[in-house]
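1st attempt posting a full record on here, be nice pls
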Amino acid sequence: MAPRLVTLRVLRLLYGVEVVNRDLATRTQYVSEILVAFGASVAGPGTLHGPLTIHNANGSYENLRLGPNVHLGRDVLLDLTAPLVIGADATVSMRCTLLTHADIGDRPLATEMPRREAPTTIGDGAYLGANVTVLAGCDIGRCAVVGAGAVVTQPVRDRARVAGVPARELSPADPGA
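the predicted structure (as tokens):
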């Protein structure tokens, strides 16, 4: 085991997983090894760029499951409040945000907008363009394409092409499809 991982494990024991989260937010190497060392399931080789931001890890990365040959671009944010699965051969481009919860907190609107947690899945072979936001429970189907900058507020079916805010399915004749 690399000396840096041993140091991170000791720091985690002393101060919690937030120390590891801070390290991932600045690190560009050994991302896969760190995720696995702290409980994530990484099925095989892929390209996992750092920096990577992990939110709500709750003590470990056990809610994260990555299939083989996953590509995570730089500056991706992964919310691990509930399970997050990224399937085989999926691409999550730079600066994407994948959420598994919504919580307005202790604010006046809390009674109208209660906390919600939902697992989120990115299907095998799916492609998320740069700066995509996927809200909690809005699964992305197999081989679906989500255009850059889209905000996914509903599940996306297999092989669909979506874009926009909120994301809407594109017609086959649309040049952006």
